[in-house]
Amino acid sequence: MAESRVRFELATPSRLVVAEDVEEVVAPGFQGYFGVLPGHVPFLTSLQSGEVAYRIGRAERYLAVSGGFAEVQGDRVTILAEHAERPEEIDRERAERARQRAERRLQGKTPEEIDYTRALAAFSRALARLQVAGRGPSH
Amino acid sequence: MATLRDIRRRIRAVQSTQKITRAMKLVAAAKLRRAQERILEARPYAHKMSDLLGNLALRTAPDRHPLLARREGGRRQIVIITADKGLCGAFNANAIRRSLEFIRQSEELGLTLVVVGRKGRDHYRRRPWTVKSEMLGFFDRLAYSHAAELARRLVESYLTEEADEIYLVYNEFRSVAVQRVVRVPLLPITPAALPADAAVVDYLYEPSADAILADLLPRHVTVQVYRALMESLAAEYGARMTAMEAATKNASEMIDLLAIQYNKARQERITKELLDIVGGAEALRQSVEA
Lengths: 139, 290
Description:
Radius of gyration of chain B: 30 Å
Structural class of chain B: alpha/beta
Strand order of the largest sheet of chain B: 3-2-1-4-5
Oligomer: heterodimer
Helix content of chain A: 25-40%
Number of helices of chain A: 2
Shape of chain B: elongated
Number of domains of chain A: 2
Largest sheet of chain A: 8 strands, mixed
Number of helices of chain B: 6
Structural class of chain A: alpha+beta
CATH class of the largest domain in chain A: Mainly Beta
């Protein structure tokens, strides 16, 4: 049944990461996670750092993403993300170090507003990576 | 007249130069292949981005965002992209010559330069024009983050009204053997017209069309810059490959020429020695007969 699927593409500036027909996509939009099934209304949102999940049959796959946009139009979902990594590509130790570093900064040793925003962004990126890394390799 | 030993030495020197040029050609060919792949891989993102921009621009007023707004004033910033290294034919010279022409046309306009690549920097360092910023030595590990950094500086120049328009001058990759220097307006952004068959979509926006546009425009600039850098890099490898191919061929011709010279010189020496021997024997014979 062709109608029960959506065409899902996820591209980063350096490559096309995913191009598949999938049952469902869940992505971190501006106002929180949203799911896309066939027949979704046209939708354009900026992307937060987080986890993109998509399902083909029973197989679920995950990607850590940050920065960019998601567009839903007809039965197509297109995500343009600044970064996207599969669980097996994530360096957990590095993400963990980044999380700790960001946490320290957030605890207020640098009250400058721009640093705070930056640290917050770094923190959520690190969290997203750790979350996705915890999913184990896809397939 | 060069002695046999001199000629032999020169042949060896040319041969070792040829080894280097041949190796450089092979390296450039391999890197060129990778650079071309990267250009292709970056396309889906770039295309989608410009479709989105076209779509958004249709439903927001053009002065909605400062990066879209055309300003009077005409202070110009020119970004000149060259290579970090030489040995690539006229690659750097072409980019510099083209940028000079453009600079001469812009001189009354309050001009600033941004130089990318060591060769361009070396050229413009001691010239009378203001070099606003430079980026060097990253081409052999070019990443999106380099483009992001350069784009950030350019957007800042534009927003602080240091420049009212910003152009890129760089070598475009046409084919392995052909590079062409192009001049591309970067800021203010001109959204590409949507293809006639593209659907104009009325989206549900989150948070809003304006906010998404504001997020998208700087990224769009980065994508343009990234593309220019990758094009320039591929063009550089193409130019180096062609230049080194020619150098290798010239070396072969030179070796052939020197070999002919060497053989001629050797033959002459043998002839001379023979004459000496014959002459000596003759003299000996005459003295015995006498």
